[in-house]
Amino acid sequence: GCGKTTLLRMLATLSRPGGGRIVVDGVDAKDDPDGVRALVGFVSHQPMLYPDLTAEENLIFYGKLYGVVDPGQRARDLLSTMGLSHRRLDSVSTFSRGMVQRVAIARALVHDPAIVLLDEPYTGLDPRGAEILDRFIVESRGCRTLVMVSHDLAKGFRMATHVLVINRGRKAMFASTDELDFDALSHVYGGAVGMETA
To answer: pTM of the prediction?
Structure first.
């Protein structure tokens, strides 16, 4: 309830701020929301998938929205990465929660965004999906920015390069993980920690 999900939704242009400005990689979200959306992929609690479409059809649809040159090939590549090639032609409504989350992650990556916002991305993921997400986060270092909200502080802290603490809707601290004492941090702030991996 401290505002982590709200912050990510505003960065993804899904919610409007009550005041102030949001600038993502130099692009003002109010002046150019489409420009921000081109830069950002968003994984949230809601998968944002059409259950009656197949996994491949969902990704092709989103690929076309983002102007991906060959959305069919991109969809097949992402489903392969997510370990779902064998289910690419099945309706998403037949998938387990973990499989739906894997397709949702693929949806967020369909346009190869420079910034990926991950709101509790491990929620509902099966062990295979968690391994795939772990690998993606590690492989993304240095080539894209990931901002992850997580209640699993130990996992988030291990993966993050920076930690933002939000307390009662305000920034309480922002620091490199090299500068922090994780045990003290988790004791003081509990689950109110957003992890940024750059």
So the answer is: 0.86
